[in-house]
Amino acid sequence: MKAFYEWESPWRPNFEATMSASWAGAALFTLIAAKYMPVPLPVKFSAIAMTVCTGMALYRGIWAWRRYVNLTRLDNYGKEFITIPELINKTAVATKKNSVWLGKGFDWTDVESQKMHALIGQGVAQTIGKIANERHLDGAYWIHGLDKETDRFMDIANLVGHTLLVGTTRVGKTRMMELLIGQAIIRNETVIIIDPKGDHALAENAKRICAAMGHPERFVYFHPAHPEKSTPIDPMRNWNRRTELASRVAALIPSETGADPFAAFGWKVLNDIVNGLVATGVSPNLVHMKRYIEGGADNLLLNTLRHHFIDTVPEWETRSSSFVKKHRDRILEAYIDFYKHIAIHEAQSSDLDGLISTFEHNRDHFQKMVASLIPILSMLTSEPLGELLSPEFKTGDQKHATDMAKIINNNQVLYLGLDSLADGTVGSAIGSIMLADLTAVAGDRYNYGIASNKPVNLFIDEAAEVINQPTIQLMNKGGGALFRVTIAAQTFADFPARLGDENKARQVLANINNQIVLRVIDAETQQYIADSMPKIKAQSLSIRYGHGVDAKIQDEYQSSYQESMLAEEEELFPAAMLGNLPPLHFLARMSGGRVIKGRLPILKAE
């Protein structure tokens, strides 16, 4: 019983104010009585009485003021703004603590949860009246009034465990990203932002923070709708094994299982073309792949055969002349015949074998098998993407082309806008292939060591537009390469809808250690978040009255009164209340189980 009576309702009437006023009135009455009564009170008695009354008035006044502050916290939660210099100062404080600043709030424990359950149990509208019904109609601001807010920090080491931002539209996911992105830029770390919808404020704030830190050259901009401002990026430039390039493009082929014959055949053709390009000294890119798949690999095969003969077959021109005459100057057929009958016994090449089999494949069947691959390559090479995604890296070019490895090694800040609102299919393809390239770079850092100890911060807004199998691999194994992934989504249903498989969606969620939840409307997502937090024993007081008259015994009256305290298992934060969070308010569950209730400021330029 003691534990229950130590708790009190956070919204009960301010009895302390009445008591303080009563003691102050008693002190005033003592003063008047001592001065104006016909028989004045003794001076010593009056002084002692006034001192006691004044002291009690002050004592009760202090508690009344605290109660007043607690009851009026709701008036303090309008929108707040933070400037870039202020964010720099916040980051400096957080960095000294090896932490990340998350805004203002308080740790959500069983104490705050008990207050919430008790308030819900006795009725929010009944307890706080018009505040609940008429003020702040865009959310339950009273939740944030359950404790005093201060700056909240998260251990920066937790970021390697990856972070999920989830919330419905227009509640602050992008604004939370801005705070995390800004702090990563200020820490001089690599930042890669993939933004399907193209939030101009997100890009501009990242650019302004780079300028504020004295390094505007760190900012790299890419957006298909603004090719004149965009830096060309080659997503096929970084690889350790040639098979990676084929896998990178083949992963974009629509497939329910990822292993159907069309996807497998497309991968084989891509791999043969990549092998031929590398053998002839050409750096593979998307334009080359489209050219040889759509128009045929005749010229590529011819050049590959010549390079192979020059490198490995002595006097090949003289020895192949009889084959040229035999095929009546059809050079390609002659060289293939020469390779199969002569050169293969002296210097066989598996790369050539694959390319020849692709060339000799039935043309009609070939076109049917690559029918799903050609549209993907056409999307990624149409204007202006041909120049933006397949640059030639010419010396002296005004547009200095780059790639993911360069961006990471130079600690740059890449904003990758996908323009998905205008063209969702192409935007999704761009984002997916860029993520596949990042996964390859992460694998390189993991396998061959990290040149510096600087982490890579990857932020994916509207992740349902671009997330793919390479992203799952990056999240699963990217910790050793110091990759910190933060993804934003509206509901958990977005992931199986995108990946086509609920098991793959669970793989994504299983690789996320930190969850930052804003307002969520989807009931399944609400319950998933609530179930991930521990349960508490919520206490409540039950009062029972009874009375009655015994009909057999005249005037026999009975009455009873009973109090009992109940402790029932409840959610630490009720699932349904996640749908009542105001905009910019969040509940964060950190790695290790710590829970924070907080609210965000809006980053502005000045």
What is the topology?
Layout: H1 2-6, H2 15-36, H3 43-71, E1 81-83, H4 84-96, E2 99-107, H5 110-122, H6 124-128, H7 130-133, E3 150-155, E4 163-166, H8 173-186, E5 190-195, H9 200-212, E6 219-222, H10 243-250, H11 261-279, H12 286-294, H13 298-312, H14 316-326, H15 331-346, H16 350-360, H17 363-369, H18 373-381, H19 385-389, H20 404-409, E7 413-417, H21 424-448, E8 456-460, H22 469-477, E9 483-489, H23 494-499, H24 502-510, E10 514-517, H25 523-531, E11 535-549, E12 557-571, E13 585-589, E14 595-599, E15 602-604
Parallel strand pairs: 1-15, 4-9, 4-10, 5-7, 5-8, 6-7, 8-9
Antiparallel strand pairs: 2-3, 2-14, 10-13, 11-12, 13-14
Helix pairs in contact: 2-3, 4-8, 8-9, 10-11, 11-12, 11-13, 11-16, 12-18, 13-15, 13-16, 14-15, 21-22
